[in-house]
């Protein structure tokens, strides 16, 4: 089952976000109120989508967004007031954080979640392909070492029998 993390300090916002994300199949999102708690949860769980409703009580939230992108495969959405969103959107989008300006409609939010989820799924495909390639490289290295060993054994002079 797909997992979502909502990082938000407001109860009304939590209910709104959980309701709309539930419509997309994330029936039991994990909801935390601070950046520190979110980091602890991201260390122990694999989330498909991380939604950060700024500001948070212990930080603004943009640092958490960049941390989430760097340390997880989750699609990350940062919700910020319109003026703030315009100021930070370019910088955060360079990291891969999707910025959504508040207020927004339910349709806009659901579309942002779908975009974030699709980026997670794309990364999962790439990670699987990367793991296959790394395994193939390891196999090639083993074969190369075996060839080198055989070449060394063949190249060493053999003692000549004395009669």
Structural class: alpha/beta
Shape: elongated
- N to C succession of SSEs: EHEHEHEHEH
Strand proportion: 15-25%
Rounded to an integer in angstroms, the radius of gyration calculated over CA atoms is 25 Å
Report the sheet with the most strands, covering strand number, pairing sense and barrel closure.
Answer: 5 strands, parallel
Q: What gap, in angstroms, lies between the N and C termini? A: 78 Å
Total strand segments: 5
- The helix count comes to 5
- Average pLDDT across residues? 93
Strand order of the largest sheet: 2-1-3-4-5
Helix fraction, binned, reads 55-70%
Unreliable spans? none
Task: Report on this structure.
The chain has 163 residues and is an alpha/beta fold. The protein contains 5 helices and 5 strands. The protein starts with a strand and ends in an 8-residue tail after the last helix. 26% of the residues are buried. It has helices at residues 11-22, 35-44, 62-71, 82-95, 106-155; strands spanning 4-7, 30-32, 49-53, 75-81, 97-102. The chain is elongated, with a radius of gyration of 25 Å. Strands 2-1-3-4-5 form a 5-stranded parallel beta sheet, with helices on both faces. The longest helix is centred in the C-terminal third of the chain and has 50 residues, at 106-155.
